[in-house]
Amino acid sequence: MKTLLATAFTVLLFVTGMVMPVEIMAETKSLRGTNAIDEPSTKPQITRWQEDKEPIERDYVQQPPLIPHSIEGYKVNLKFNKCLTCHSWANYKEANATKISQTHFEDREGQVLANVSPRRYFCPQCHVSQVDQKPLVENEFEPVQAITGK
Ligand code: HEC
Ligand code: HEC
Q: pTM of this prediction?
């Protein structure tokens, strides 16, 4: 009975693709530059951020906007949030920056809080600076009509 179960399980694994035949595995090339799961990824090349400029257009409506300026050395920790020194509602006018939207005050139940919601506190978790890079995989994505108007 036990061997029968084990055989059935192995067959199931093959069918669901969890165990791949060796030839297929050899062809798979991980984007991390290495195929073994326990090996560290290849170090990314050091690139220069784009020069500071006007906001970069979004590609889809709900996209966290890309950061159009360098954030090198900008700390965000428990006691201090460098981003908010320019982007908070109290400071945005003086800094001439975009103020964080009201969605950033909502907790996950949709309750509006008096301050930035903890789930929106670590800004670079969602917002990243842009560099001019070749995509890792070919990509034919087109921005939505709501943005391009085409
Ligand atoms: C010294 C002030 C300053 C600091 C600090 C700062 N920003 Fe900015 N940020 C700006 C200004 C100014 C703009 C451009 C606004 C414009 O040109 O309309 C901007 C633009 C942005 C935008 C684009 C908004 C849009 O509408 O597309 C994002 C996103 C952003 N910043 C995120 C961040 C994050 C995240 C941090 C912290 C890691 C940060 N910023 C720190 C001043 C600042
Ligand atoms: C969980 C993801 C997430 C985190 C964390 C986050 N944001 Fe955002 N942010 C978004 C998304 C999505 C949008 C666009 C939709 C919206 O306004 O909610 C946005 C929009 C913005 C905008 C543009 C607002 C506008 O009116 O165009 C600014 C500026 C911004 N965020 C700054 C920040 C700063 C500063 C922090 C950290 C205090 C932060 N965000 C944290 C996801 C995030």
A: 0.81
